[in-house]
Specification:
By secondary structure, the chain is mainly α. The protein has one domain: Arp2/3 complex 21 kDa subunit ARPC3. The protein contains 10 helices and no strands. Helix 1 runs parallel beside helix 3 and helix 7 packs across helix 8. The mean pLDDT is 82.
Length: 199
Amino acid sequence: MNTKKTFDTHKLVLLALFTAIVIILQILAIVTRPLFPAFAITLVLIPIVIGSALIGTMAGCWLGLAFGLAVLISGDAAWFMSINPIGAVLTVLLKGALAGLASGAAYRLLAKISKTFAAIAAAAICPIVNTGIFVVGAYLFFLPEITQWGETLGFSSGAAAIFIGLIGVNLIVELGINLILSPAIVRLIQHGQEKKALG
């Protein structure tokens, strides 16, 4: 039996499964948004972290890209699309793809030291990069509109509107969720690696 072909098939099946999970979680985030109107928390970053650790860095990039595509298709970036469609597409796709890429790269680099530490670090890096690229995109493409929007809400500057109004508690909560769930993330990665070794 061709072991490489079996392994590649296994990776493709895993990638398809994690892609489906990412899309479902993004849809779920949209559906539940009215329950939490003050902020938009996403759990999509968790399967991106796990997928990038189990399958590879480029799989993390793909899963992040799938997340970005789901955001655009679902209309979650409609306000930004109405202002600057090219800027919105670039920001949304890049923030997801780079978050997955950074998460996978961090895991690969640190797993040589400790797989547990690598999984926790990957879980922390993913939301930081995702939010960081969003901030860069907001400054590059949407600052005048965000500043105007912020002024109507009483923010002192465009930076305050971005960091408090748009990001608000999102980064803290997403980072907290990833870190709280990191023991489960570690266990899921270990379980996946054990099955891969047996399979």
